[in-house]
Amino acid sequence: MDEYLTQFKNKKKSFKDNKIKLRNNKKLSKYLTKFLLAIIFFLISVIFTNISDKNLLFYKEHVFTESLPFTKIKGWYEDLFGEVLPKEDNTATVFNGKLVYKSIENYESGEKLVVNANSLVNNLTSGIVVYSGDKDNYGNTVIIQGIDGVDIWYGNLENVSVNLYDYIEAGTVIGQTKDENLYLVIKKDNEFIKYENYKN
Question: What superfamily would CATH give domain 103-198?
Fold first, then answer.
């Protein structure tokens, strides 16, 4: 009987060890895939810019001065090849819908919404976080590039719960307002859109 129990414990331990190795291999392959994609992009860029001076000027003009539409590229890639990595759903959707505010007025390049103090802020559209940090006149700001090609700035935040280059679904809480003001800038193709027009 003792021999049977020892054999069972050894099998159980072996199973756990294999499970840990498999999990570590998945993490390694995830990072290796990202690394290889970065190398491929870099090599293609080098080859493209070395073909002619015209390509180099085009590259400088469009790549260095304009922001890349990450969400469009991601959608295009997934349509052609499927997802690069298995989708991990670690987002927490608290609520969907429109931002609740008391009043709205023009502010800088966008609008200032007066909300309840320390209100939770959920993003309006699914997309990628392309900026997270301090911006002049907006305070701590998160910019999300939506799958619809619209960049949305959320300013005057604290307790930000998203990181740079996170892909987040619509309705995910991204932080809370520092006080009663939420600065909102909605921009598509360098044109600013009013919140009332965008949400309809």
Answer: Glucose Permease (Domain IIA) (2.70.70.10)
